[in-house]
Amino acid sequence: MSLYVGVDSGTQSVKAIALDLDTGKVVAEARAPHHLIEGLPPGHMEQHPQEWVSAMDAAIGEVASRIDRSRVRGIGVSGQQHGFVPLDEKGVVIRPAKLWCDTSTAPECAILTGKLGGAKAVIRKTGIPFLPGYTAPKVLWLKRHEPGNFKRLRHILLPHDYLNFHLTGNYFMEFGDASGSAFLDVRKRTWSAAATDAVDGRVADCLPALSASHESCGMLRPQIAKRYGFPASTLVSAGGGDNMMGAIGTGNVVPGAVTASFGTSGTIYAFSRKPVVDPAGEIAAFCSSTGGWLPLLCTMNVTGVTEQVRSLFGWSLSELETAAAGAPAGSGGLMLLPYLDGERTPNIPKGTGVYFGLNRGTMAQGHLARSAIEGATLGMNYGLRRLSALGVKAREIRLTGGGARSGLWRQIAADIFGVPVVAMAQDESAALGGALQAVWCDSPGRGSGAALAELCARSVSLDESTRCVPDRARAALYRERQRFHDGLALDLRRAFEAR
Fold first, then answer.
1. Is 299-423+469-497 the same fold as 3-250?
2. Would you say residue 206 has pLDDT above 90?
């Protein structure tokens, strides 16, 4: 029996699973929390990378205690995208990592866009715009605001790359996660000299050489292998961003599948054999971590919004769902623009949340709860419709993330998206994707998309008991609400642009 460990380092915790290759089943899993740095100015979201390491070691250690450690052959790491981990010449972290949800770099985005000749020129040269969530503007922020730290900078890594560095001691980056840095020319899969030079002439030397996603980052360092009790021959695969690994963990490795992740942020993505570049820059033209491309939309406010509402009323998850289910579809006209952390799609980095339609009838707990679920989902559907306009059509959507566990939320998603939705049998899709990528990296068929699809077919399954189909009347209602929601969002963007 061969075992492979998958790790998913998210914004709030690290999850680890062990996959039995012979049965295709997850045989152990564990979770360990880490935390955001508190007390930062609005828009600044940071974490200490050492917390990720400690949480990963704890989660893997717990999984290891439940399996035959001698059977472990590989580890694959998934990580939150876009975070900037700055290292000095000795590989020591210079300052806390700025995260994907950090919106403090909007001025740097404007500077970089101007240096490349405007928004259309950026898309033409790299395929991806400069947005506050991405890594490149964070590096420029360091240069402008902390020049002493920038002077020490010798290595730029993304969060999952830093965990790979901890495991192997190697500086390594693969195409999928690299494409979310805004330093990559996504069409050619090479670092963009225009993007790196716009930040600083020496940035290119701080980035690792690019590697294909089926390649190994290296073997476990001897002291790490000893700590986990794993064989010294345990390989570490390339890994990838959480969305790239989530695609593998939901079987989204061939054209036709669409995945929606209802986590702290919301993402919807699909596999493509060629780049899908959005002239408007609203859909990210990412590379996948499987050798293809992964056109993706991202909204920044999903379960973080419902968690705020739940906390406000002191509810359990079941009480939140019960309250929301007691309100009518459309929440009686109450609508939430859920931009508690600003927004990425549509791009309103300094946006704030707006409840519209409050009156004596809608100023009620159930209406506030349901409109939070609807508002987050309507926000995701804004991007889904943009994907459709670019030729990526959804016939069915596979759901993952915390929001997918709610039967009410799944039905609301089906009604708003207008297609059937179904949750995964294994909810930790990104961790499962990491384990499957490690198997792929360790197999004779590595590099073959067909081989990866076969591996996914053995280990990825749908939970058919969760399937929801759109209700015709509610779908029509939500189409009307979508038009109003989009109009409010654009009005809000104009208001903030005029400030």
1. yes
2. yes
Which amino acid is it at 215? E
* CA atoms of 285 and 292, how far apart (whole Å): 11
Exactly one of 8, 177, 242, 415 is catalytic; name it: 242
Backbone angles phi, psi at 283, to 5 degrees: -100, 125
Q: What is the CATH number of domain 299-423+469-497?
A: 3.30.420.40
Q: At what angle do helices 317-325 and 407-417 cross, to 10 degrees?
A: 50
Q: For all residues of the chain together, what is the average pLDDT?
A: 95
User: pLDDT digit string (tens) for 438-452?
Assistant: 999 998 877 777 889
pTM of this prediction?
A: 0.91
205 is catalytic: no
Q: Is beta strand 335-337 parallel, antiparallel or unpaired with respect to 354-356?
A: antiparallel
Domain segments of the chain as ranges: 3-250, 299-423+469-497
**Residue count of the chain:** 499
Fold topology of 3-250: Nucleotidyltransferase; domain 5 (3.30.420)
Tell me the per-residue pLDDT of 73-122, one tens digit each, with 9 for 90 and over.
Answer: 999 999 999 999 999 999 999 999 999 999 999 999 999 999 999 999 99
